[in-house]
Specification:
Strand content: 25-35%
CATH topology: NE0471 N-terminal domain-like
Oligomer: single chain
Helix content: 10-25%
Number of helices: 2
Order of helices and strands: EEEHEEEHE
CATH architecture: 2-Layer Sandwich
Shape: globular
Largest sheet: 4 strands, antiparallel
Amino acid sequence: MTPDVILVRPLPDYTLLAQFATGEWRSFDMRGLLQYPAFAPLQDPALFQRAHVLHGTVAWTDEIDLSPDTLYLRGEPVEGVVA
């Protein structure tokens, strides 16, 4: 089972830096998803920067979220991040 996201930092280049319940950090480039209608509103930098953790997932609005599975399985491990 994929661990929950406990902290997320949206970066200016449409990358998410996420910490999981295991303590691991992963980086996920959202640019490949912004072409899909469900994520297209996130092309607005102000909206993208509103990423937050909601029930173990990353969410922006009531309608836009990203599963921890996607972040964990497709994200790149990152070492040395300070919470």
